[in-house]
Design goal:
The chain contains 11 helices and 9 strands. The chain has helices at 17-43, 50-55, 59-96, 108-111, 122-132, 152-176, 180-190, 193-220, 247-256, 295-300, 318-327; strands at 239-244, 260-269, 272-279, 286-291, 311-314, 331-332, 337-339, 342-348, 354-360. It is elongated, with a radius of gyration of 29 Å. It is α+β, with helices and mostly antiparallel strands. The protein is 48% helix and 14% strand. Residues 1-10, 52-59 and 223-233 have low confidence and may be disordered. The two termini are 42 Å apart. This is VOC domain-containing protein.
Length: 368
């Protein structure tokens, strides 16, 4: 099995709003609690020392320890709820944009928050990928998320979160060091900042949740993007092999003439390559372009099916694609014809393999 977009996980599209509701509720409570804690420390910093509370050496610690414990438990529950929502949203993003690999594997959804250095950028990257791949219609299989444009909303949320975390930690350290002025500045900023970070986090969650629920609603109404989402069958045809004379020669035809997209081109050693292509927008079956190895396979190039039409290229706009192939110099064996099953014409690829260009009778033209 080769690690390429063709083998990205096939997932079910599942409800996500309940997870979002729990996460939003806890984020709201945590934001208010954090802002209130900073305000309390700012107003009453002269009457008791925050350091005393953490050193557990005064009656203040005994009185406030249950409150502090509840405060951190609330933070922990919020983190758990947010990560649970992330897992469900990421699963749905895979269903909406199958064949698109996210930049970070599933364990990063948990460990990305606690691993030093990585926690400065991994969580943002995880959320960016989920948002990018959740839009109705999905992304083309094989889309490189490293080159994608990043959301300004996610940037704003992440910067607010980082600033809040840094200032909250700094205010503790400054209080213990008796640096009153700097502590005051940090606390003043830490009063509104958790509210801002919480509102931005809520906006991110709602944006992704609404996008995914829109896709689910479209599917329920039978108008899903390209009609291909929803619970997949237990198995499907992933690849079919086409024997070719030369990898680059074949790619020149399938990419630049037929307009397919390249899914993978991986060297295997000894001059062999794992080359897969697929029509743009397709979600399942792809072609494995296999260079002939030996005289027996070379004799099969262009005639794998004994002269029969062996490959069927479906289209949602016959006239558009027929004119495109005609202008690209593709050889047609006949004039287009109408059959009970749809509009069809036979054409040849560069090796002489016979293809049907077919618009099924139950598919309406996408244009005009």
């Amino acid at each position: 099995m080769y690690p390429n977009a063709l083998f990205a996980p096939v997932r079910f599209l599942r409800p996500v709003r309940a997870f979002a509701t729990v996460a939003l509720t806890l984020i709201a409570l945590t934001s208010v609690a954090s802002a209130g804690t900073s305000a309390m420390r700012l107003l009453y910093r002269e009457s008791w020392s925050w350091r005393t509370v953490y050193e557990w050496n005064a009656v203040y610690a005994l009185l406030l320890s249950p409150v502090i414990l509840l405060f951190w438990v609330l933070h922990l529950l919020t983190g758990i709820a947010f990560v649970c929502w992330l897992f469900r949203a990421r699963n749905n993003a895979h269903a909406i944009s199958p064949g698109v690999f996210h930049r970070y594997a599933a364990p990063y959804l948990v460990f990305g928050w606690i691993a030093p250095i990585a926690n400065l950028f991994v969580p943002k990257g995880v959320v960016d990928d989920i948002l990018t791949t959740s839009r109705p219609g999905g992304l083309r299989p094989g889309t490189d998320l490293y080159r994608g444009r990043r959301s300004g909303l996610v940037w704003a949320w992440w910067l607010a979160w980082l600033l809040w975390t840094v200032l909250e930690t700094a205010s503790m350290a400054l209080g213990n060091a008796d640096l009153t002025v700097l502590e005051t500045v940090a606390l003043v900023v830490c009063v509104p900042l958790p509210i801002v970070a919480g509102l931005l986090a809520a906006r991110v969650i709602l944006t992704i949740t609404n996008l995914q629920e829109t896709v689910r609603a479209d599917l329920t109404a039978g108008a899903g993007p390209r009609g291909r989402l929803g619970p997949p069958v237990g198995s499907y045809l992933g690849l079919t092999t086409l024997v070719v004379r030369d990898y680059d020669e074949a790619l020149g035809f399938y990419l630049h003439v037929l307009g397919f997209e390249l899914l993978e081109d991986t060297p295997l050693g000894d001059g062999k390559r794992w080359v897969t292509v697929r029509p743009r927008g397709a979600r399942e079956t792809a072609l494995l372009l296999a260079r002939a190895d030996g005289s027996e396979q070379e004799a099969r190039v262009g005639d794998q099916t004994g002269g029969r039409v062996g490959l069927f290229l479906h289209t949602d706009d016959f006239a558009r694609d027929y004119e495109h192939l005609l202008s690209a110099g593709v050889v047609f064996e006949e004039a287009p014809r109408s059959e009970p099953y749809g509009r069809v014409v036979v054409f040849l690829d560069l090796y002489g393999n016979r293809w049907d260009l077919l618009q099924p009778a139950d598919v309406s033209p996408a244009y005009g």
